[in-house]
Design goal:
The chain is of the alpha/beta class. Helix content is 31%, strand content 20%.
Amino acid sequence: MVYTGKVIKYGDNVDTDVIIPARYLNTSDHSELASHCMEDLDKDFTKKVEKGDIMVAGGNFGCGSSREHAPIAIKASGISLVIANTFARIFYRNSINIGLAILECPEAVANISDGDKVEADLDNGIIYNRTTGKSFKTQPFPEFIQKIIQNGGLIETIKKGELN
């Protein structure tokens, strides 16, 4: 799996209440959630995000509550991949469950700026900053997690009978 996109970058401790504010949790409509993604942190996020873009953030991304709405809102907004220094564990698992690709790579985060063009090869664990020409190595996903992401989430993977 290779993802290529423009970077939208944030700092440390981006919590689920900022990713999708609690006042919008009364809906499960993915496009409605996407329309409010990041609005309390970045009011222009929905205007600037394009399908395939890559979100880059500091440490403890997705901390806060355990709501699945946060990774759903990010994925539905058009973000194809999130690269961070670290993720809150429940956010990490929720992201895999809904088929949002995520990678931890502090070296890449330190060397990627807002607006850079980035390519990430999840099969081989390589992140390439096309803007600067620098590349970074990260741990590739195991095959079964790659399958979950490719299928659009855990439920879809189970429906297809592709988990052993």
